[in-house]
Amino acid sequence: MVKIGVLALQGAVHEHAKRLESEGTSKAVLVKRTEQLWDLDGLILPGGESTTMRRLIDRYDFMDPLRQFAASGKPVFGTCAGLILMANAIEGEEKGYLAFMDVTVERNAFGRQKESFETELYAKGIANDLIAVFIRAPLITKVGTDVEVIAYHQEEIVAAKQGQFLACSFHPELTDDHRFHHYFVDMVKNAKKNVV
């Protein structure tokens, strides 16, 4: 059984926890205090409002602990706003925030809330017909040489992986399709096995 945290400051926290628990091989932990991070095998940065999440990360002194967690080699998965937090560059802003991944993102690239939609995607190594929900979703506009593109929507990048980091523009926690979470749980299990 692996322990995977969901950063519980704001956003779709309980939906991710429910998906993780449904795996049967992972225990979900709602992370509200920095000291909870050190007992985890992996971490999810959920969708929500990225500016609000950034403020709360600063207010509750999560910045350095999150960077230390990432530096330890443990897997981190960011969805929607979580992707924005993980990107090393955000279009129209001076710099990224946590900067875990060598990607550039554009906020709200698919339009406002009323332009939300659901579609099927081919996700490399995960599924040929993954159900993806896009809500005020960001877009990955550039990737570094070490970044593997996992999924496209109409030739635009919507999911990527770099080492132990996984991120997507959409909300896999809002569907009954568990395969993206299953993929991340496998990443966590493999990382745990490889720890000496």
From TrEMBL:
Keywords: Glutamine amidotransferase, Hydrolase, Lyase, Pyridoxal phosphate. InterPro entries: Class_I_gatase-like (IPR029062), PdxT/SNO (IPR002161), PdxT/SNO_CS (IPR021196). Catalyzes the hydrolysis of glutamine to glutamate and ammonia as part of the biosynthesis of pyridoxal 5'-phosphate. The resulting ammonia molecule is channeled to the active site of PdxS. Coiled coil: none annotated. It comes from the Bacteria. PROSITE patterns: GATASE_TYPE_1 (PS51273), PDXT_SNO_1 (PS01236), PDXT_SNO_2 (PS51130). One of its GO terms (biological process) is L-glutamine catabolic process. Pfam families: SNO. PANTHER family: PYRIDOXAL 5'-PHOSPHATE SYNTHASE SUBUNIT SNO, PYRIDOXAL 5'-PHOSPHATE SYNTHASE SUBUNIT SNO1-RELATED. L-glutamine binds at G48, E49, S50, R107, I135, R136. The keyword Hydrolase applies. GO terms for cellular component: cytosol; glutaminase complex. The active site is at C80 (nucleophile), H171 (charge relay system), E173 (charge relay system). This is Pyridoxal 5'-phosphate synthase subunit PdxT. Belongs to the glutaminase PdxT/SNO family. Pathway: Cofactor biosynthesis; pyridoxal 5'-phosphate biosynthesis. It catalyses: aldehydo-D-ribose 5-phosphate + D-glyceraldehyde 3-phosphate + L-glutamine = pyridoxal 5'-phosphate + L-glutamate + phosphate + 3 H2O + H(+); L-glutamine + H2O = L-glutamate + NH4(+). Signal peptide: none annotated. Its EC number is 4.3.3.6, 3.5.1.2. In the presence of PdxS, forms a dodecamer of heterodimers. Only shows activity in the heterodimer. It comes from Salicibibacter cibi. One of its GO terms (molecular function) is glutaminase activity.
